[in-house]
Amino acid sequence: MRNQIVALMNSFVRQGNPMPNQGRFTKEHMKESLACFPRALREFFRNDGLDVAASLSYFMVLAMFPGLLALISLLSLAGASESGTKWIMEILEQGLAPNGHASNGDSQQLLDTTEQLLQGLASQASGTFWAILAGSLGALWSTSGYVTAFGRSLNRLYGVPEGRPQWKRRPQMFLITVMIMLVTVITLVLLVTSGSIARGIGNVVGLGDSFVLMLNIAKPPIMLVMILLVLALLYYFTPNVKRPRFRWFSAGTLTALVILGLSLVGFGIYLSQFASYSATYGTIGGVIILVLACWISNIALLLGALVDIEFIRLRQLRTGLPADDEVLLPLRDDTLVAKQELATYKDLVQAQEVRINHGGDPLQDMEIDPQRPAKRKTKLLPVGLAAGAAWMISRATTIRSLRKDTEKTSDQGH
């Protein structure tokens, strides 16, 4: 049924038939669009979003160190490893001390741990071009484990099974990881380009010192745009659904970016003003802070994905499609779906054979509707007699107690 509806939707879109009120902006459209945000929040908790984000945090921590190694290795190929690590530390310091105050024990411990990690990774990112490239690809393969886990989480939010075989899915996730890493490297190279390098580029293009000023002004927007691109790549390519089109700037990516920025700034203020993880956890306080930051980040990413899903559902509902319960999108691959259904059927048959071999009724399954749970047959006559007897007993007890109270009152009056 789902495939038929999706096929009908695709044929309708290909025909280009106009929809009623399509493209018209009204108050009703605004109200429907705003309703997507609270619905996305409800769907987040219906799908146990906090637990899903916690599991993704595990994969993010595992992927973080090989990802940083690959990033610094690629920056060293571009000749920007030292400036890139310095810029990362500056951003982290600004995030942990947003008001310009000095970092407290927890924030300083996290900064020291990060600086030692980056310096250690930078010292390892050395060698010939091919050695660094091979090491970067190996590290990226480990990093793709998080991207794979993120795709499974989005499948859960979309309500679709994973139909791509492992030999096809893992290379796809690896390519997505490589694309994200290349975007990150290009962004960092652009952001750390300053001074004589930027002035030299300005002289080549004929702008001179004006190019340096323009680059400094454009750095924050460039970073935000590249983060939106990374989010769009994750939302579009990782789940096992074919979305209508690739959207760089969508409601989901913008929502994820806003939530991510606000939550991390708030977490930084909390660490600098109120938290005392170093006093509670000692030397592992920095690790606890890192895990919490990963958990908050994944919550923001999942909420952004759900906002995108709700807006896709809204567009389908406006075209008259029955997307009340789930989004109607075709699967990228359904190869594993049939195999999984066959395996489930075999397990069911084997379980029935075991039950029948041990004296079970072979016709029992024929009396049960598989679409509904079995209902217990209730005998109405014994239940009615028992209820009537209980009512008579309670009534007699009440009358007896009232008579006793009346007699006591009359005796006291005499």
Radius of gyration (CA) equals 31 Å
**Structural class, from helix and strand content?**
mainly alpha
Number of helices: 15
The share of residues in extended strands comes to under 5%
Provide an overview of this structure.
With 414 residues, the chain is mostly helical. It folds into two domains: 47-318, no CATH class; 335-367. Helix content is 76%, strand content 0%. It has 15 helices and no strands. Helix 4 packs across helix 13, helix 9 (195-205) packs across helix 10 and helix 10 packs across helix 11. It is elongated and about 110 Å long. InterPro entries: Virul_fac_BrkB. It is found in: Cell membrane. The chain crosses the membrane at residues 56-80, 174-197, 217-237, 249-271, 283-307.
Briefly summarize what is shown.
It is a multi-pass membrane protein. With 414 residues, the protein is an all-alpha fold.
SSE diagram, text form:
Elements: H1 2-15, H2 27-34, H3 36-46, H4 49-77, H5 81-96, H6 105-124, H7 129-158, H8 166-192, H9 195-205, H10 209-237, H11 251-273, H12 277-281, H13 285-318, H14 335-357, H15 380-413
Helix pairs in contact: 3-13, 4-5, 4-6, 4-7, 4-8, 4-13, 5-6, 6-13, 7-8, 7-13, 8-10, 9-10, 10-11, 11-13
Pfam family, one: Virul_fac_BrkB
Subcellular location: Cell membrane
Membrane topology: Multi-pass membrane protein
Key features of this structure:
414 residues, mainly alpha, 2 domains, 15 helices
